[in-house]
Amino acid sequence: MSKGKSTDIQILDVKIDFEPVSFRAPLKFGGRVVDHTYLINAAVKVETRNGHHATGYGSMPVGNVWAWPSEAVEPAQTEMAMKAYAEKFGELFSSYPEYAHPVEIQFNVGAEFFHQAKKVADKVGVSETLPPLAQLVATSAIDAALHDAYGRVHKTNSFNLLSAEYCNQDLSNFLDEQFAGEYLDQYTLRQPTATLPLYHLVGAMDPLTDGDVTDRPDDGLPVTLTEWVAADGLTHLKIKLSGDDLQWDIDRVLATEKVVAAAQAARGCTEWFYSCDFNEKCESADYVIEFLKKVKSASEAAYDRIQYIEQPTSRDLEAASAAKMHKVAELKPVVIDEALVDYEALLKCRELGYSGVALKACKGITESLFAAAAAQKFGMFLCVQDLTCPGGSFLQSCSLAARIPGITAIEGNARQYCPGPNARWAKRYPDMFKITSGTVGTGKLSESGLGFHLPEWTITGLGEELEESASSTQTSEKFKKVVREES
């Protein structure tokens, strides 16, 4: 590494808080039903070389059912372990001794991810090591807060601080020699995209019409798909499928098409799109091909509306049975999702025939920027999805999406399932939470840091605690002590 930039920062302290979130309606995926979660909220205080300070914030659902779908460990245990992992890395990040750019800090501290995954699992009594996806999700709020703090301390949007002027190392240090001399500013936008279409989730348990409703929450929000299309002017719909029941999957798409076509006709809309998500349940690529052929045979219009297929088979890319997606990709873009945990996984997925990348802020701003750069260089299809992200976590996801060229749409389903945390943000950013014409007003996300601020921050105690944070002279020995004790 070079001697560094005058713009480099050092982390003074990190605070972690867990915020319980209840669901207004259950969400089923991967064979499990989710009705609550916790937000991992992080506050990071940083200092520049010339002594300026700022605090950044990040937030992300634990998302353990998705990030760690274990057959041997119960969801309550994986949730506990991921929270403990977040706390451990709050300690590690806060004690990291060097001044650097957030991308470099995240990359260097990330070298401890695997080691700490085993240590934390042993400490909390969980029989499995945290898998790579769970590691990324559990630390993503800290990574976001670090980027946010960097932008705030320089009074600039964080996505405009990714060039050689600010970064000490080019992308070849994080990816490979194909990126020599390149920086992330070449793969990001200087202004956020004004609007992005919103992908609305059609969950496996979600009612399509009044006849499907068994329980209607008394909160005034839409319940049926017909109501959601009318209320938000939806044009993009993500359909959750089983992956192990071909006829059910075909029928679900056709039923969705019938309901949506009627709802769109009522409002005079002639163009809309679908994505299909099998949650890794398909045994083979042949299942997906047969599914697409039969949908097309039954309704060519429904088939034509399918914009892409989310990772349909197992995230285990090293398995001998890892499915090859080349023939599926000839029909529709196939995006890597759960398997995308680093650059090596992206390269492996390309070999297997995947033609697109699903970016997710829950894997970290840094890792998402790396994946976005690689996807653009390789000419891959790009979309941004969320992890049922409410409040600030949704704004993080939108801010990321609005700065990546070629993003087709952004997923945002917390407004359907757990809208509670949105309330304190919606007053300041109504265009982000009130969906009109099926779009999100991402052009508003241009403030310093990650593009949005909430002056009356409501995470209990985080901001106040950081006022008494460690001084820069303490951090070097503190980091060495933490790593030494855990080695």
Description:
This protein is 38% helix and 18% strand. It has 487 residues and is of the alpha/beta class. It has 2 domains: 9-173 and 451-486, Enolase-like, N-terminal domain (Enolase-like, domain 1, 2-Layer Sandwich); 196-444, TIM Barrel. Strands 4, 5, 6, 7, 8, 9, 10, 11 and 12 form a 9-stranded mixed beta sheet that branches. Helix 6 links the parallel strand 4 and strand 5. It is globular.
Condensed summary:
By secondary structure, the protein is an alpha/beta fold.
User: SSE string, helix = H, strand = E?
Assistant: EEEHHHHHEHEHEHHEHEHEHEHEHHHEHH
CATH topology of the largest domain: TIM Barrel
**Estimated structural class:** alpha/beta
What is the CATH level 1 assignment of the largest domain?
A: Alpha Beta
Helix percent band: 25-40%
Morphology call:
globular
Give the percentage of residues in beta strands: 15-25%
Gap from first CA to last CA:
25 Å
Low-confidence stretches: 456-460, 468-487
Mean pLDDT: 92
Largest sheet: 9 strands, mixed
Q: Superfamily at the CATH H level of the largest domain?
A: Enolase-like C-terminal domain
Our Rg estimate from Cα atoms comes to 22 Å
In the CATH hierarchy, the architecture of the largest domain is Alpha-Beta Barrel
Give a count of the beta strands, DSSP E runs of length 2 or more: 12
Q: How many domains would you count in the coordinates?
A: 2
Given the structure, what is the number of helices? Answer: 18
